[in-house]
Amino acid sequence: MLPEHYQTLLKIQEKIGKTVIDEVDLPESVEIVDEYWIIPEFIKIQIRKNVESLETQYYVIEPPIAKNELDLLNSLYEDLRRKLVVKELIKDTETMIMTLLETLDVLINEYGLRMDGGLMLKILYYLFRDFFGFGPLDPLLLDKNIEDISCDGYDIPIYVFHNRYGGMSTNVKFSEGELDSIVLLLGQKAGKHVSYANPIVDATLPDGSRIQLTYGKEVTTRGSTFTIRKFRSEPFTPIDLIATGTLNSTILAYYWLLIENKMSIMVIGETAAGKTTTLNALMMFIPPEAKVVSIEDTREIQLFHENWIPGVTRSGVEGQEIDMYDLLKASLRQRPDYIIVGEVRGKEALTLFQAMSTGHASYATFHAGDVNQLIYRLENEPLSVPRVMIQFLDSIIVQTTWTRRGIRKRRAKEIVEIVGIDPNTKDLLINPIFRWDPGSDSFIQVSDSNKLEKIAQYSGVDPSDVIDELRNRREFLEQLYRNGIKNYREVTKHIHTYYRDPELAIEMVREANHGP
Prior knowledge:
Layout: H1 4-16, E1 30-39, E2 43-50, E3 56-61, H2 67-86, H3 93-111, H4 117-132, H5 138-142, E4 146-151, E5 159-162, E6 166-170, H6 176-189, E7 200-204, E8 210-214, E9 225-229, H7 238-244, H8 249-260, E10 265-269, H9 275-282, E11 292-296, E12 308-312, E13 314-317, E14 320-322, H10 324-332, E15 338-341, H11 348-357, E16 361-367, H12 371-379, H13 387-390, E17 395-404, E18 407-421, E19 428-437, E20 442-445, H14 450-459, H15 463-482, H16 488-500, H17 502-511
Parallel strand pairs: 3-6, 10-16, 10-17, 11-12, 11-15, 15-16
Antiparallel strand pairs: 1-2, 2-3, 4-5, 4-9, 5-6, 7-8, 8-9, 13-14, 17-18, 18-19, 19-20
Helix pairs in contact: 1-4, 2-3, 7-15, 8-15, 10-11, 14-15, 16-17
């Protein structure tokens, strides 16, 4: 949903009935691959391709503004800012918007101006964008197709990663003064102080997006920089993982059974492999009455779960820093059924594996390219987790990024189980269960699951009964997918219903039809 100030702008535009973006002339060497509106009549995006160099560009189109119009806009902006600061405007967004509109009306009368509807809409767009948003960054931040935004310095095009077209440059870039101001604004919006004395900052924007900022040329020689990893307001669900091909319904049903039976899982992979996205989706399989504690540096885990304590680290305040190790120690005294650690990096690793060994169901992401790297990093400094503890990790998802026809996709390339330690060699015993085949882009089951047999033993049922239940849950997830049910609240609600009454849940999904 668009921010409130842009919704107000669209209502005004509808009343005035004018358009402010005309057709844009294209150079002969450029063709349009795709185009779409971010804000109808105000922000259009074109994906352009240079037919000679074959380079793709993300092109932002905003209302064109002539030099005399820009001079007027700058004068209005400065006068508005002075008047609004004098009024000490600290109110709700709706009141702020109305106050700005009223003050603007007074200023226009003072200037003795008469504006046509088109110019008024342009002025309002840029004032709203700069007062309430992030200025020229707004189109990139509002585009739900953009995952990452990267600025490398002064007068260098901003780069984005588009979920359909991959990485590309944009037509947006900033001069030295503009970029320094943008970095200060991003820091201010995130509640952090950025300066020459404190030139490197990691923070979180109000919408949950993660940002990394550098200020000036001392630490980044091409000038101030920023990197934004955008936050998805609606988290991915298991059904989204089926739709994107990251996992299939059989693997998801397998993990549903493991999570219900409190088996510990790690999602590992390289940078930007989608580890947290997958972990968050799997956590929707947690039983509804279970107590959950999550621990993160920046808030990324999103659960539609009542009995949940989300913990976030805090940097030093009056000498007191609360890190992931402190939060994890505290969580063990909160008697959780499930512990989720956003990313294991330091001394909290040993405590997490101690929790696993004492029966706490534990889930985490970890930066490693394969199982051997995972074990090597866990056993060595600075983590130093004994091998005898690593065996309490039940299952590992090895996730990767895969590029096909220029589009980056995320896939779980391997699903393995740790089944114990060889008494003679002391090696960890690894049981690969599923493998991803890049040629067919499909998942192949390569062996039977030791963990499902373990669940059957604990439950006192025949292994065939567990396989039947796996099949039932797989079909249930596929029915959710076919019916287009993928909103995280709805998916969680159906999963919770399945826990309480499987037959009712299956019937409810059959009756629901949201379209493909």
